[in-house]
Amino acid sequence: MKKQVLLTLAIALGLLSVLLPLRQAARAQGITPRDFVAPAVFQAAGTTTSSIQSTVDAFRAALDPANHNNGNNPPPLDRSGHREINWDGGNTANVATVISGNPFDGFLVTRGALFTTDGTGFVQAPPAGLADVNVFNNPTYGTIFKAFSLSRLFSAIGSNITEVDFFVPGGGNMPATVTSFGAVFTDVDQPDGSGPAKKQGNRGASTLMEYFGADGKVLFSSFVPASPGDGRFSFFGIVFQDARIARVRITSGNVAPGPDDDGKNDIVMMDDFIYGEPQPLN
Question: What is the pTM for the complete model shown?
Fold first, then answer.
């Protein structure tokens, strides 16, 4: 149960339904204005799946106007297509809890994504599975989280950090870059601690997206918008004009899952990942 101050803050900031597609100033290193074009930014937060659906759809249309979801298909493919991971194993009725090691390469060959963490591994599970004694051992997790696309969520274990590196699908060992990457989150409670939030004593945003180029330098970073309250949804994604994202670091929540989700600990789970077709690194 969230503390009353978070609910009051949500009303004050009007964050129960936020739709803010925009172009945002980039934090870049070693890139001059002449060769850097700021990405299109898509972000939203709200109480239900429908609160963010239009932004997710707009993001998908921006990165792939023809909506070519390449699924598990190997190259050669139309580079304008995209990949999606919704953690459901191709079946929305899938409620199995699956724990994977670190790194997690289950989508490396099929969709060109490799996941690493400074924790012990990863889990794909419905909310009830996250609550299990063999996962996070917290009964409250079965009710405070909801899936955006049924039925499972995704999380690192032993850490709140997930890193995504891109590779050409089919081979598994050829580094790649993508034009875009966006992710859905559930239960982001702590908004950016600036402006009115700072004046009300907010401790600062809990969830951060960082995008890196092939040289390891930051291309762009931003906090994910919050919608305080159990089982609510947030989305953040960016689209560049060319494929320059080699890695994404996601900080989901301010602590690793396990503790109660309260005014001190903002526990956040992830759902759908959507990104441009991985292209060979030149």
Answer: 0.86
